[in-house]
TrEMBL record:
Domain spans labelled Protein YjdM C-terminal: 49-116
Signal sequence annotation: none
GO molecular function: hydrolase activity
Organism: Asticcacaulis taihuensis
Matches recorded under InterPro entries: YjdM (IPR004624), YjdM_C (IPR013988), YjdM_N (IPR013987)
Superkingdom field: Bacteria
Family that this chain belongs to: Belongs to the YjdM family.
Descriptive protein name: Phosphonoacetate hydrolase
């Protein structure tokens, strides 16, 4: 069995492999096992956020929603296909900060968006 590297976030040695990802059970940090640019960014402490299709997102990207999202505390719904420009990545549960047209500033989860390629 190969030796697993320690978690880059908390240095835990209890890292396990799940498909192409390495996962730390202590801090729930996930990072890719492959040696591509995303893994290098994770090793350097950079934030790696992927969309629903696995494309790496960056600050300033444009994304579209892939499903209708209900707004908590409101009867409003953000419709599928809504284009959100100039996103900002943050390290939290809702890892995209943005301004949704007609709604305003809010946080989105990257699993509900896909990157728009121009």
């Amino acid at each position: 069995m190969s030796e697993m590297p320690p978690c880059p976030k908390c240095q835990s040695t209890y890292v396990y492999e799940d498909g192409a990802l390495l996962i730390c059970p202590e801090c729930a940090h996930e990072w890719p096992r492959t040696a591509d640019g995303a893994a290098e960014a994770a090793d350097e402490g950079g934030l790696v956020v992927r969309d629903a299709n696995g494309a790496v997102l960056q600050d300033g990207d444009t994304v579209t929603l892939i499903k209708d999202l209900k707004l908590k505390g409101s009867s409003d719904v953000i419709k599928v296909g809504t284009k959100v420009r100039n996103i900002r990545l943050v390290d939290s549960d809702h890892n995209i900060d943005c301004k949704v047209p007609g709604i305003g500033a809010m946080g989105l989860k990257s699993e509900f968006v896909k990157k728009v390629t121009d």
